[in-house]
Specification:
Blueprint (H helix, E strand, L loop, with lengths): L10 H7 L4 H14 L4 H9 L3 H18 L2 H14 L7 H21 L3
Helix pairs in contact: 2-4, 3-4, 4-5, 5-6
Length: 116
């Protein structure tokens, strides 16, 4: 899937992942906002230090948090960047990190505006 495919926040998918438990889904959304942060400066330091494994793990956690709530575009952008960091694909890390940041910001806004 291309990172522009899919929904910013597919709440139906997210809810289905928790057996339509609205209370649990709301908790996951709140946890996403409080714990799943993408800090370009922290990420950049990992990359600049040559710590591609650390950078990949950082993105992996963010990607997983996004996937868990149905943030499909964030998950796709994160997967693409993680693949590059792990040497599974070619690509421009800075450009892909910019895409992850954009999708993270869009997903965060969608989560803040979500009403169950």
């Amino acid at each position: 899937m291309d990172d522009t495919d899919g929904k910013i926040l597919d709440s139906e998918k997210g809810l289905s992942l928790v057996d339509n438990d609205g209370e649990l889904y709301r908790l996951l959304l709140d946890t996403f906002l409080s714990d799943a942060k993408f800090d370009p400066e922290s990420f950049g330091k990992l990359v600049s230090a040559g710590n591609r494994d650390g950078a990949a793990s950082y993105i992996h956690a963010l990607k997983g948090a996004g996937r868990q709530i149905g943030a499909e575009r964030l998950a796709a952008a994160g997967q693409r960047l993680e693949d590059v960091l792990r040497g599974k694909a070619g690509g421009n890390v800075a450009a892909l990190a910019g895409k992850v940041l954009t999708e993270y910001e869009l997903a965060s806004e969608a989560v803040r505006n979500f009403r169950l």
